[in-house]
Amino acid sequence: MKYAVYGVVLAAMLAGCAQQPGKDAAIEDRSAGGAGGAQSTVQTQGLAGSDASGTALGAGNLVAPPKNAPGALGQRVIYFDYDSSAIRNEYRAVLEAHAGFVKANAKAKVNLEGHADERGSPDYNIALGQRRADSVRKAMQLLGAPEERMESVSFGEEKPAVPGHDEAAWSKNRRVEIRYDGE
């Protein structure tokens, strides 16, 4: 079931991508094969590549991009809709930039911290935060970031970005924060 969600998330994320000639590739996720036999295939047709702006900012041995990095690489938070772990298309450039950076810098290790708003039980929110972090991790992996240099963790509702009990606060608390080791 978990991998089926990944497939749906990634298919939705990639569906809005514009096509570019010469960038066609198919990525087959075989990780679910051992746990029930479910597999998903994601077409990456049209992906611009994982090195859009992440590679441009220091390919080599950086552990993290500067926090004030220009463009998508400077953005470290991905927000989610209520009760969802689907990544919205508006974050595609952010994922490409960070995946490209991790891929291009051998010392870069990234922690993807999933969060949920206060609605739902603590157990549910931990699971939802983990699904969100895993969605970002899987998307970055498909964009070229090495899996072994990414870790996903959930804080559930324990670390809200914004205090409050309304939609304005909740919308800022449904997120994944991209943090690099060594920062």
UniProtKB/TrEMBL annotation:
The keyword Ribonucleoprotein does not apply. Residues 38-47 have a biased composition (Polar residues). Gene3D superfamilies: OmpA-like domain. Keywords: Cell cycle, Cell division, Cell outer membrane, Lipoprotein, Membrane, Palmitate, Signal. It is found in: Cell outer membrane. The gene is pal. GO terms for biological process: cell division. NCBIfam families: Pal_lipo. It comes from Sulfuritortus calidifontis. Part of the Tol-Pal system, which plays a role in outer membrane invagination during cell division and is important for maintaining outer membrane integrity. It comes from the Bacteria. This is Peptidoglycan-associated lipoprotein. The Tol-Pal system is composed of five core proteins: the inner membrane proteins TolA, TolQ and TolR, the periplasmic protein TolB and the outer membrane protein Pal. They form a network linking the inner and outer membranes and the peptidoglycan layer. GO terms for cellular component: cell outer membrane. It is a lipid-anchor. Its main location: membrane. The keyword Lipoprotein applies.
